[in-house]
Each structure stands twice: as structure tokens, then as C-alpha cells.
Fold:
Amino acid sequence: MAVKAAIKQFTITTEIPTSPKKVFDDWLDVEQHSALTQTPVTPTDTITGIFTAHDGYINGINLELDYGKPILQTWRTTKFEGSGPDFCIEVTF
Structure:
């Protein structure tokens, strides 16, 4: 029996009137990220570091995290069932 997994991709783009460095730094800062999302977050600035966002609704792991390069993270919500795969997001600047 063969099982196929569907891979879905989408892109969300926005213009933020500040420098890429400021956005990168704010993404990893608890106060600034919380202000951005208007919800409690626990960011981390380490590779394989575990973070939470939206008051624990989202959790994930930093996979790539170098200034000047995209941030790559896994994401999982509390609504994910069992051991299904995590989302993977890439934040580019």
C-alpha cells in the first residue's frame, strides 16, 4: 500500500517600515515579539531551542537562525493530532 503526503505551500508578505535587523531582533525578543502578536510568547535565540507563541497555542523549534539569513522554524499548534508532521516556516527579510 502506498501512502502519499500532500505538501502545501503558501507565502504571506508584508512591508514593515523598519530595518531587517530590527525585525530579526524583535522576532527573538520576548517583549517586542509579544507586542507584535499581542499575545504572550517565549522566543529563543538558539538553534534547536524550543519556543512558544500565542500564549502556548503554537510551539516549535528553531532550525536555522543566523542574522542576515532566513529564520527557519518548525511550528505545531495545540490542535495538531497525534504525531502528525509539524509545519515548517521560513521568515525572510
Observations:
- The domain at 20-91 is CATH 3.30.530.20 (Alpha-D-Glucose-1,6-Bisphosphate; Chain A, domain 4).
- The chain has a mean pLDDT of 87.
- Helices lie at 20-27, 30-37.
